[in-house]
Write a structure and sequence with these properties.
This protein is mainly alpha-helical. It has 11 helices and no strands.
């Protein structure tokens, strides 16, 4: 991932799509392509939408890895199928988490519009939690109502949110109570910038 020309990345991607690797080698290839994207902003030349073939594989590990690669490549053209996988209660948990992580990396209007509906009470609690956290990392202000709604409807990872909110309050010089909902209200009233809040909510 740290080395390799664009031609070598293309060859690696082609071999991956041609199913020339066993599972272990395929996972290593996907990891190398992802590292090249994240560390060097390097991607194989040419059409990359064919990665979508791996988003439908029955192997959960390969599927999750391919989904993360789509996020590393910021494949906006794959936002729709990733949204569908993130919002499907039949999606395996590891695959769902990978889908939400990739949606966060891709961002954009389509993703921002899709996340609030995924956080409504009609959806599975696990989906709502991930939707709220992903939206918070993209736009903290827009996520506050979604997160607040979640507190009264199912258990969420309160320690994680409490730590993140405490860091946010500290960074912007506000005094927030230990109550998560009250802290969110304080930040919303103060108009805390999304950039500060996003960083603080990361573990």
């Amino acid at each position: 991932g740290k080395a390799g020309s664009s031609g070598e990345l293309k060859q690696l991607f082609d071999l991956l799509l041609q199913a020339r690797f066993d599972k272990a080698a395929a996972l290593r290839a996907i990891s190398a392509l992802g590292q090249a994207a994240r560390l060097r902003q390097a991607r194989p030349p040419g059409e990359l939408d064919s990665i979508s073939e791996l988003l439908r594989t029955s192997d959960e590990d390969l599927r999750a890895a391919a989904i993360r690669l789509a996020g590393a490549w910021k494949m906006t053209t794959l936002a729709k199928p990733l949204i569908a996988q993130a919002g499907d209660k039949a999606t395996p948990p590891a695959v769902r988490q990978a889908a939400f992580e990739s949606l966060r990396e891709i961002g954009g209007a389509e993703v921002m519009q899709a996340l609030p509906p995924l956080g409504t009470k009609q959806n599975d609690p696990a989906i709502r939690r991930e939707a709220a956290r992903t939206l918070a990392l993209l736009d903290f202000g827009k996520a506050l109502p979604l997160v607040a709604m979640s507190f009264g409807q199912e258990p969420i990872d309160l320690p994680r949110w409490r730590r993140g909110l405490e860091r946010t309050c500290h960074r912007v010089g506000l005094i927030c109570s230990g109550d998560v909902a009250a802290s969110m209200a304080t930040l919303q009233a103060d108009g805390t910038s999304s950039a500060v809040a996003q960083e603080a909510m990361r573990d």
